[in-house]
Amino acid sequence: MSVPFRIGQGVDVHALVPGRKLILGGVEIPFERGLAGHSDADALLHAITDAVLGAAGLGDIGRLFPDSEAKWKGADSRVLLRVAMEKVHAAGWRVGNVDCTIICQAPRILPHAPAMVANIAADLGIEPGCVNIKGKTTERLGFAGRGEGIATEAVALLVRAG
């Protein structure tokens, strides 16, 4: 029996470090530090990429874009998401919606959410109303609360195409 829906979850965490741009959801956010990583370290797009790949049964971002390959050094995570979506579509799925959470004490996420939603919707090929982004703090608890890093979570619903 073929199930017409699938759900995937993605999680990503990166350390905040000096000398890097902070990019979340394909949006450069003015901040004194950025996320450490092999690519542009866009933790939000990485979580979404993992969510859609997982829902389609296609593995994860690390298998598709290993950090051991030099060609992914400094890669734009929007490109990585679009490549992943080509594989999701080829497997017969389309995205119904995504729901995302960015966990950090700072910067504030809400002012940047509309631009993130627009980027993500475009890259997933869905309406902006099918993308939700929430910013949450940890009330100064843990690594995110101390400003040492940013965590992201994403859940994606895939619908059988056609």
Any idea how many domains? Answer: 1
| Major beta-sheet overview | 5 strands, mixed
Q: What is the structural class?
A: alpha+beta
Tally the helices: what do you get?
5
What is the number of strand segments? 7
Q: Oligomerization state of this entry? A: single chain
Q: What is the beta-strand fraction? A: 25-35%
The CATH top-level class label: Alpha Beta
Q: Give me the Rg, rounded.
A: 15 Å
The span between the termini is 17 Å
CATH fold group: 60s Ribosomal Protein L30, Chain: A
The parts where pLDDT drops under 50 for at least 5 residues are none
Helix fraction by DSSP (H/I, runs of at least 4): 25-40%
Strand order in the largest sheet: 4-1-7-5-6
CATH architecture: 2-Layer Sandwich
**So, the CATH homologous superfamily?**
2-C-methyl-D-erythritol 2,4-cyclodiphosphate synthase
Task: Provide mean pLDDT, rounded.
Answer: 96
Description:
Helix content is 29%, strand content 31%. A five-stranded mixed sheet has the order 4-1-7-5-6. Strands 2-3 form a two-stranded antiparallel sheet. The protein is of the alpha+beta class and 162 residues long. The model has no long low-confidence stretch (mean pLDDT 96). α1 packs parallel to α3 and α3 runs parallel beside α4.
